[in-house]
Description:
The complex is a heterotrimer of chains A (243), B (215) and C (55). Chain A is an all-alpha fold. Chain A is built from 9 helices and no strands. Chain A has a single domain, classed as Four Helix Bundle (Hemerythrin (Met), subunit A). In chain A, helix 2 packs antiparallel against helix 8, helix 3 crosses helix 8 and helix 4 packs antiparallel against helix 8. Chain A is globular and about 60 Å long. Chain B is mainly alpha-helical and 215 residues long. Chains A and B meet through helix 5 and helix 6 of A and helix 8 and helix 9 of B.
Amino acid sequence: MIKKFIHQFASPKTYLFQVERAYKFILFFSLVVYIVSLIWGLFFTQEDFIQGNSFRIIYLHVPASFLSQSLYVSMALASFVYIVWRVKLAAYLVISIAPIGALTTFIALTSGSIWGIPTWGTWWQWDARITSTLILFIMYLGLISLHSSFSNYEKADKLLSWLAIVGAINIPIIKKSVDWWSTLHQPASITLTDKPSIDPSMLYPLIGSMIGFFGIIICLVIISSKYQILIREKNKSWIKEYV
Amino acid sequence: MKYLGLELLKLRKKTRSWLGPILVFWLIMIAYPLTIEASQENLEIGFFSVLWIAILLSMMFATEDIFTEDYNDGTLEQTLINDTSFAYQVALKVMIHWLLIGIPISLLSFIFSLGTNGNLSLSLLILPFAMMSSYIFLNLFVLGNALSLNKGSVLGAIITLPMALPVLIVLGKSITAIQLEINYSGFIFLLLGSLSIIIVSVPIVVSYIIKAHLE
Amino acid sequence: MFDFAFNSLGEAIYMNGHGIYVWSVVALVLISLLSFFIGYNLKIKKLKKKFNESN
């Protein structure tokens, strides 16, 4: 019954027509939330006592950093769905998310480096958290290069899915690395169980920017998956109707 | 037992496959002192970093053609369709590689460590770390080679190298703990735990990956 | 909570010397996101044109 449900609602055709309708709404809402939160954070929050105005990079760095890991987890979940239930759409989503994940990781790494200059006096430090994020970036690039090296799409999808699942082991290591090893990196300001260590006037625009950035990335994933579906389903008759 | 003997015989006959990585390790450890001022203090500073990286690279070379020959001559397909579990045979293959390559390299690590810092207790501790880490690296690179089965081993190594880096971090931290005489048993248990998971899961995943290649 | 944190717009851009870091990150994020959006939309447009020509 689960298999029938998944196959019914996870056809590329259904997905494409559904997201077309939702896309503009999600993009508009995300852009509004993101821009408002950024303006609030950049211009209307008081400067940090220790870091000064450079702390404002938090509104750009933290959403990217959080998303870079979340996207890998969603890739691993989609890979699991593909391997277990053989849902084609899941495979398309895996390869769609990989370049977006690489983008967010790149943003996290470079914004973190730029933030490091006024804060730590160095643009790079080989501590566990930063190194793990760099490893994650290389893993994204590895995934993309693995998929592109096979001309047989089905084989490439299967291998990519296996690699994504195995690589997902790296995610808890990144998450916990701040706690496991003493590092230069600031500990997590927002956790699931404890009260946030950040002031509310800084926290609310941060949450807003995370929601907005999340929505923007969802829209990017939608466009990327649309592109994948158009390539992979090009011989299907419904594509003519869509185009 | 039949497969164990068969894999052992296959690897022993291909001298380049088991001796090559050991020689590569040897060469890296010999090359290291040539790159710096060979005073005792200078040698000790970077020694362990070079040691772990040398083990990593040797294991990468050790798995270079672990499946290629069998894939090209159809042995892999035969192995897939016979009665014994394919994952079990992969696990045996990895274990044989570790016995013939990993253990000698671990013993060499002990010797080089003793020669560099003259500390017997430290060098004896290197042995279990080298043995566990070489087995972990072997499994990871076997996974990479299975993924890039007929696309060259470089792609597979590049893909799985990031997964080996956290192991290097743990190895580095454990040496610091040993040298500072802090409790290092946590690192041993961490490596042991990782190894016990990898030793079971990697052959299973590799068997599925190779089945995907052969379909 | 909604008081402007600076005395002027110029000060907001300068940010006590930290402006270069903050605004360079803003530019980085903007350029990265825009390039991906534009890139993918162009690719899709190209594909649609190809489909229409073949039909």
